[in-house]
Amino acid sequence: MPPYLAAGNVYASAGPNMLSQAVRGDRALVYVPNTKSNDVWVIDPATYKVVGKFPGGPEAQHVVPSYDLRTLYVASSRVPDGGVVPVDPRTGRPGTFVNLRDVYNLYFTPDGRQAIVVAEAYQRLDLYDPRTWRRTRSVRFPQCGGINHMDYSADGRTMLWSCEFANRMLVLDTATLRELREFPLARASDGMPQDTRLTPDGRHFLVADMHADGVYVFDGQATRQTGFIPTGRGAHGIYFSRDGRLGYVTNRDAGTITVLDLATLKPTTTWRIPGGGSPDMGGLSADGRVLWLSGRYHDEVYALSTADGRLLARIPVGRGPHGLTVWPQPGRYSLGHTANIR
């Protein structure tokens, strides 16, 4: 049995090339949403060439796989005109824009019955029926300015949310959205927590903080903060190797990626983008050999070898590239964001 299956990896079904029947036959493409040019650029990962472009809605932020992996949604957030553009991953073609208002980010409940729209500007979470896109409920969290990124505990019962403009983390009950607790972040007085991810062993949450220049560590049920890992200026995105042994933390302001040993939660090496860059959000190729990242301030995309951090390609794209998605992805179902797939 491969080690990532034997070791209790919550992403065990998203190992290298473990593509489900739902995504086999989908076009292999990288979708890059650009917040300033309001479009999506499409890259062929085999040639590193741009092969298409289409409108992504006003202020396109992230490309999010649906729970069943059959649709990709471009989330756009400009108030009051944001919404989602559905994309057919079989063809790579976009559908009709759906106005939902301020879709900064998009998640799905563990049972797939509800979509959770992160309406950051309104400080609230909007729940929708993902089949009809009719809103069923809204809950506002004024104490969590800039409610932003989230992940679930291993059992799916607890959510840990970053509050980008409030320098704190918010813990919610998944079923009720009731607040369970919150954590002020003390490492930086003006902290800006971003990407939040559960480690493969389910024992820790990692939270990248752009102003603290590193990653906060919480226990796997988000009951307490247990540590902090310095990484680099502008720590922003968090990704995991397909075998569950390494973490990749993007340091947007430093132009680097910190590689973490997930067994010890210590950095092992730092990859520097030659000539500088602003690595932001992205994901791994299906085989885990390439890490794709948007260059937020440089209007480009980077492809790096996960074997040694070598830059394989630097690809010019639109203005303000953000939450790109690599497709297809291994796994059974999507919990949202750019590639939170289990």
UniProtKB/TrEMBL annotation:
Residues in YNCE-like beta-propeller domain copies: 28-324
UniProt KW Signal keyword: yes
Pfam families hit by this protein: YNCE
Keyword Signal in annotation: yes
Highest taxon above the source species: Bacteria
Stored Gene3D superfamilies: YVTN repeat-like/Quinoprotein amine dehydrogenase (2.130.10.10)
Keyword field: Signal
Protein name, entry field: YNCE-like beta-propeller domain-containing protein
